[in-house]
Design brief:
With 501 residues, the chain is an alpha/beta fold. The protein has four domains: 113 residues, Tetrapyrrole methylase, N-terminal domain (Cobalt-precorrin-4 Transmethylase, domain 1, 3-Layer(aba) Sandwich), CATH 3.40.1010.10; 127 residues, 2-Layer Sandwich (Methyltransferase, Cobalt-precorrin-4 Transmethylase, Domain 2), CATH 3.30.950.10; 115 residues, Rossmann fold; 125 residues, Rossmann fold (3-Layer(aba) Sandwich). The chain has 19 helices and 21 strands. The strands form five sheets. Strands 3-2-6-1-7 form a five-stranded parallel beta sheet, with helices on both faces. Strands 8-9-12-10-11 form a five-stranded mixed beta sheet, sandwiched between helices. A hairpin with a 2-residue loop joins strand 4 and strand 5. Helix 13 packs parallel to helix 14. The chain is elongated. The mean pLDDT is 93. This is uroporphyrinogen-III C-methyltransferase.
Length: 501
């Protein structure tokens, strides 16, 4: 079997990598990646994976191609699984063919995992179909930056100039005046629409349309830079009509997500779906307890409770994990009532066959108690599986009405000892528009990692709080959030961000 995989990372949008590529990234022993491969994919690598960067940016080579070839062969001979991750498709201006030839000569088996090439994806995200019956029935992919050591150009400008094909140039921004000049001199109409798409499919995508005659001047005015795709042809006239990606409300907006990494994916995915540039900065981690004897005892005595109140998704997950560990399942809840604080917690219970008897309309303790009192909880035995450290309002309020409350820690949250340098650098560059806080612990731990006085230096960054409890914690640090949804949920928080954008 092959132990080297030449993997196409696609154009940059994490959702456009293939399932096969993700499988290789998750299982490889050594990752060798390029400048245009989205670094978010590196999070899928296993902890012990050796990660090597060999990217080339605007002629600045970390390693020349010959050295990259040698590195791949050297690592492959160790017998480990090598993922050679390349932006777009390895065989479309990715030099994957050259690397494949070197591997064959070295007697090393390899596989190719194709990726979506930027020449198709970037125009599509900019509202430009590369073929269209009303404009053209063919497309030509062309390098805009040829090997300088070649004795003569491989570009047939006479054919390009006289053809009605859509022309897609890769790596051509630096040669844009020459490209436009050659096409016009060889027959292309000066009024032919031309589009430039920079960072296609990513949250920082930008694009514009001009004409062959004016595009070089327009690009210079805009200080346009690589990486960009150049599209020439009548299909570019559809840009304004079919554009969809650049209409996303949060496109280009930098949003810090402070949730624990185990919980962040839902919020991250929703924000990215609206075009946001998400900066994950988990301030807490969700951890197992050192000892589960108390939890096991409570489970075995569960029949003594009339109510079980789950206050979080994590509470459900960790409680069920211990149920399974001692050979029990949802049937143990027979005859008792279940409350879920919030729709996400309710869904987590439903996935395990439990339909909650009570889900409050608002997800703060005071409203929860009011709803439980209406359902006759007074004086009953109540179990609350939750984090080791959490607000005491709910158990205290239930005790006031005569409930016998048992608070059962089933997990704990800990401060993530992460460096704040990357986040502070992004704030310095003006790349951050919002910071989101989804609990009091995310606030406390964020300001443990980022000095509040440092954060005050960026008054333009808006703070988004999920609800009043989190807001009170922010106020304790001297900050008033700009955004707080009426619905104290993750979807509510996102809706509030969309309203503000």
């Amino acid at each position: 079997m092959a132990n080297v995989f030449l993997v196409g990372a696609g154009p940059g949008d994490p959702g456009m990598v293939t399932l096969r590529a993700k499988e290789i990234i998750e299982t490889c022993d050594i990752m060798i990646y390029d400048y245009l491969a989205n670094v978010d994919f590196l999070k899928w690598c296993k902890a012990e994976c050796e990660i090597l960067y060999v990217g080339k940016k605007g002629g600045d080579h970390t390693l020349p191609q010959e050295k990259i070839n040698e590195l791949i062969i050297e690592k492959a001979r160790s017998g480990k699984i090598i993922c050679r991750l390349k932006g777009g498709d390895p065989y479309v201006f990715g030099r994957g063919g050259e690397e494949g030839e070197e591997l064959v000569e070295a007697g090393i088996d390899f596989e190719v995992v194709p990726g979506i090439t930027a020449g198709v994806a970037a125009p599509a995200y900019a509202g430009i179909p590369v073929t269209h019956r009303d404009h053209t029935t063919s497309v030509c992919f062309i390098t805009g930056h040829e090997d300088p050591t070649k004795s003569e150009s491989g570009n047939n400008w006479a054919v390009y100039g006289q053809s009605n094909s859509t022309l897609v140039f890769y790596m051509g921004v630096g040669n844009l005046p020459m490209i436009a000049k050659n096409l016009m001199e060889n027959g292309r109409d000066a009024e032919t629409p031309v589009a430039l798409v920079r960072w296609g499919t990513r949250c920082n995508q930008t694009s514009f349309v001009s004409t062959l005659e004016n595009v070089a001047e327009e690009a210079e005015k805009r200080q346009w830079k690589a990486p960009s795709i150049i599209i020439v042809g009548g299909v570019c006239s559809l840009h304004d009509k079919l554009a969809w990606f650049e209409k996303k409300a949060l496109l280009g907006k930098g949003v810090i997500v402070t949730r624990a990494r185990e919980q962040a994916s839902g919020l991250v995915n929703i924000l990215q779906g609206h075009g946001a540039c998400v900066h994950e900065f988990p301030t807490i981690s969700v951890e197992h307890l050192d000892d589960y004897n108390e939890v096991e005892t409570a489970i075995l005595q569960l029949a003594r409770y009339q109510w079980v109140v789950f206050t979080s998704v994590n509470g459900v997950k960790f409680f069920w994990e211990q149920l399974a560990a001692i050979g029990l399942d949802s049937r143990i809840f027979g005859g008792m009532q279940i409350a879920a604080i919030g729709p996400a917690t309710a869904e987590e219970l439903k996935a395990r066959g439990i339909i909650p008897d009570f889900v409050p309309e608002k997800y703060v303790a005071e409203h929860v108690v009011e709803g439980l009192l209406e359902r006759g909880i007074q004086g009953q035995d109540v179990l609350i599986p939750r984090a080791r450290v959490a607000r005491e309002v709910l158990p205290e309020e239930l005790k006031k009405v005569g409930c016998n409350v048992t608070v059962l820690p089933v997990y704990e949250t800990k401060l993530v000892q992460a460096s704040s340098k990357e986040i502070e650098d992004a704030m310095d560059k003006g790349a951050i528009n919002y910071v989101t806080f989804t609990s009091s612990s995310t606030v406390e731990n964020f300001f443990e990692l980022v000095n509040p006085d440092v954060f005050r230096q960026y008054p333009e960054i808006k703070i988004a709080s999920i609800g009043p409890v989190t807001t009170k914690t922010l106020e304790r640090f001297g900050f008033t959030p700009s955004i707080e949804p009426e619905d104290y949920t993750i979807p509510g928080l996102v809706d509030a961000l969309l309203m503000d954008a």
